[in-house]
Amino acid sequence: MKKPLVSIITVNYNQTGLTLEVLEALEKLTYPNIEIIVVDNDSREDPKPVIMEKFPHTIVINSEENLGFAGGNNLGVVRSKGDYVFFVNNDIDITPDAIERILEIFDEYPDAGVVSPKFHYYYKPGIIEYAGYHPVNTFTARNVPVGGYEEDKGQHENVISTNYAHGGGMFVSRKVIDTVGMMPELYFLYYEEFDWCEQIKKAGFKIYYQPKATIFHKSSETVGKVSRVRTYYLNRSRILFMRRNVPYPKFLFFLFYFTFATWPVNVLRFILKGEFGHVASFNKAVLWNLGLKQFNKP
Question: pTM of the prediction?
Answer without folding.
Answer: 0.94
